[in-house]
Write a structure and sequence with these properties.
The chain is 64% helix and 0% strand. The protein is an all-alpha fold. Helix 1 packs antiparallel against helix 2. The chain is elongated. The chain starts with 5 loop residues before the first helix and ends in a 14-residue tail after the last helix.
């Protein structure tokens, strides 16, 4: 169990949590990035990949939806 890696993944989740300019774009990209990051954290910590993906996706969607492009701006989403 590599619990010391959790802060690294949390920082990655927050720094990559959203791209796009509309709230829905940011929530969608945040959920995707959060789910991927959460799955990795869940696998590394022994929490479970599914649980990690679920929690990470929810956190990423929340961060993406609750911020605007003035807070965090990673540019235009890939699907646009």
């Amino acid at each position: 169990m590599k619990v010391y890696l959790v802060p690294i993944f949390v920082v990655a989740l927050l720094s990559l949590s959203a791209c796009g300019t509309t709230g829905s774009d940011r929530a969608l990209s945040g959920a995707g990035i959060g789910a991927g990051t959460g799955a990795v954290v869940g696998a590394v910590t022994g929490m479970g990949v599914g649980t990690g993906a679920l929690l990470g996706g929810a956190a990423g969607a929340a961060v993406g939806g609750l911020t605007d492009s003035d807070d965090i701006d990673l540019g235009r989403p890939a699907w646009r």
